[in-house]
Amino acid sequence: MVFTSRDDLAALLKEIQPVNRQMMEQAQARLDNLTKPRGSLGELEVLAKRICGIQHNIRPDLGRKVILTFAADHGVAVEGVSSVPQDVTRQMVYNFLRGGAGVNVLARHVGAEVWVIDVGVAGEINDVGLISRKVKAGTANLTKGPAMEIDEALQAIGVGVETARQAISNGARILGTGEMGIANTTSSAALFAALLDVGVEEITGRGTGIDDATFNHKIEVIKRSLEINKEHLHGPLATLAALGGLEIAAICGMILECARSRVAVVVDGFISSAGALVALQLEKNVADYCFFSHMSAEQGHRIFFEKLGLSPILNLDMRLGEGTGAALAMGIIEAGVKIINEMATFAEAGVNT
Questions:
Q1: Is domain 6-59+340-349 classified as CATH 3.90.1720.10?
Q2: What is the pLDDT of residues 261-292, one digit of tens each?
Q3: Which CATH architecture fits 64-332?
Q4: Contact 74/156 with Cβ under 8 angstroms?
Q5: What is the DSSP string of 248-300?
Q6: What residue segments make up the domains of the chain, in order of their start?
Q7: In the annotation, is 322 catalytic?
Q8: What is the pLDDT of residues 108-126, one digit of tens each?
Q9: pTM, whole model, 2 decimals?
Q10: 3-state SS class at 348
Q11: Which of 111, 209, 228, 291 has its CA 20 to 30 A from that of 328?
Q12: Looking at 43, 322, 342, 348, which residue is catalytic?
């Protein structure tokens, strides 16, 4: 699916419905009758109940676990906001495809697949396993004007929709977001600042581990980007196009499709949360389907959670991205599902209460 108009996006949003609250009540009743004190498995029970509501099934099945790692480059990289060169995006895509990155290791650990999608890498990539859906070879420099045209943002959203739909049709019932793109913490911080109405100094982090001088420069770059694009910052879609990245837009589309298809989506870290924020502002029911995997060490991620009243599953001081946090959280969610599916009730176990 490729979006060609706002109407196409609007049609998708209309299909997103709330989860089944009645099924969640039934799941709670079952959880309360398992061989344990009520609520003694804490958040595992909450996660299991949410999955039941998403799938409309008291005995849910997660099927295949798939992480979609979208890669794209950012024109703002020329402003010197990262400690590594832009070509690292392309080099890391090869690393993903060969199974050597952090997300590959952690995905194998929890039994998940990693799909790698080129939605906007500046260089050409030819390797087995790559899903090539390039919209353009990186965004424009957002300090000079909009990073993308609206139609480009819609195309990138469509890449996320299409790829998520493919994974779901192949049996995935839980998807994780992932990304790769040098300078994408700059674009993400700009999006957070605009969409959450918070100060740039509060929301901006050190990304690849930049020094103080580069960090201060990064803040100024984001401020310039917000000023030069201020006439475009009206609504989530236009703001995404002006300040975001192609991979961030694809993550937004992926999340929207998961919600439409009633499939759980595990949101990775700071950059993925920027894509999730756009999706949430486009359609509030999307929140029912999102599981936020972890609190990134990027300082702005805490503000995101506080502003939206959300809680992450894990807090491990991670800031790698790629889908690493999503992989770990998938294992926790799966544990909760196994509790409701496999644990005996008091009656089944013959235990008196």
A1: no
A2: 999 999 999 999 999 999 999 999 999 999 99
A3: 3-Layer(aba) Sandwich (3.40)
A4: no
A5: HHHHHHHHHHHHHTT-EEEE-SHHHHHHHHHHHHH-GGGGGGEEE-B--SSHH
A6: 6-59+340-349, 64-332
A7: yes
A8: 999 999 999 999 999 999 8
A9: 0.97
A10: helix
A11: 209
A12: 322
